[in-house]
UniProtKB/TrEMBL annotation:
Protein's name in the database: ABC-2 type transport system ATP-binding protein
Biological processes, Gene Ontology terms: response to antibiotic
Molecular functions per Gene Ontology: ATP binding; ATP hydrolysis activity
GO cellular component: plasma membrane
Membrane topology: Peripheral membrane protein
Amino acid sequence: MATIEVNALTKTYGEMVAVDGVSFTVPPGEIFGLIGPNGAGKTTTVECILGLRSPDGGSVRVLGLDPSRKRRALAQRVGAQLQESALPDRMKVGEAMRLFAAFYARPADWRQVLRRWGLEHLRGKAFGDLSGGQRQRLLLGLALVGDPEVVVLDELTTGLDPVARRETWALIGELKESGVTAVLVSHFMDEAEHLCDRVAMLRGGRIAAMGTPADLISRAGATSLEEAYLTEVER
């Protein structure tokens, strides 16, 4: 059974169609990318996956459950790092990890999560004093402290400098090795090409193309995923 099933998903806001008939499945252990520019429908799609918004048409299933009806049950099995995630500036790293672990019935050991994601030396540091890369590392750790089966990562590296971006990529590589199923939302094509097993290229709320990065690059006669995306957009 697929871990995530999205079938003919539609979501509108007034007269604006944000997502228009999007369909895809994500098998267990895959890192699946949703890529495209701002306004392509990426964030709305993952908000429906997380149960934060209800579809106007189509269906979504995560671990066999409807997120809009079983959001509380899925919250124990799904982690998320969203684009606007933040913590109070004075909250310390260790306090945040301990607090978030308390939200779950069977969390991972938050101390081990600190060590795994290179946060142990920051345990007593306040969120407001962290660098951009350190904040992203913490937010990723918080998304994983519930020991989720699925994790959604929305624009994980936006605003990070090149060094912090590469460090975050390394963390996602470790996540992949752990067998967690992930949906990675990004408008950085190089990021998706490097990290994702498969990607769906979104344009105007629809899927323009879907496949492995290598297949999409080959299909477009391109040399990179960014070039392949631009080829699709210009069609």
